[in-house]
Amino acid sequence: MLEALASGTPVIASDIPSHRLPGLPLFLARGVDGALRQLIDLYNTFYSDRERYLELCRRGREAVVKGYSEDVVVPRYVRMFKEVAGSPSP
Fold first, then answer.
1. Under 8 Å CB-to-CB from 17, ≥6 apart: which residues?
2. pLDDT > 90? residue 46
3. Per-residue pLDDT averaged across 65-70, rounded?
4. Which residues does residue 13 pair with via DSSP β-bridges, in sequence order?
5. N or C: which end of the chain has fewer CB within 10 A?
6. What confidence score (pLDDT) does residue 90 get?
7. Whole-angstrom Cα distance, residue 38 to residue 13?
8. Could you tell me what percentage of the chain is helix, strand and coil, using 3-state DSSP and rounding each to the nearest 5?
């Protein structure tokens, strides 16, 4: 999902808690019917309102850069490694 959003591709994903948690601009769908409706809506937006479609693409890229860039992720990993290394053994 992150790679697709980062490349400017809107993402349709199943509506499960782990997909809602990061707060990414995903199109959440329940079941095959929901996914099909989302796909048709995106298709129609692409052809009927190109500016809106491009805005969806831009929002996806921005969300990934904001939440998952090297400047954000690397310090989290470093902090995690320090916490684990500093923890006493069980």
1. none
2. yes
3. 88
4. 28
5. C
6. 59
7. 10
8. 70, 5, 25
Query: How many domains, the chain?
Result: 1
Q: How far apart are CA 5 and CA 66, in angstroms?
A: 12
- C-beta separation of 42 from 10 below 8 A: yes
Per-residue DSSP letters for 45-86?
HHHH-HHHHHHHHHHHHHHHHHHHSHHHHHHHHHHHHHHHHH
Give pLDDT, residue 29: 96
Domain carrying residue 9: 2-86
Ramachandran angles phi, psi of 21, nearest 5°: -55, -50
- For tokens 């692409």, the residue is 46
What number is the average pLDDT over the span 51-64? Answer: 95
- pTM given for the model: 0.76
Residues present in the chain in total = 90
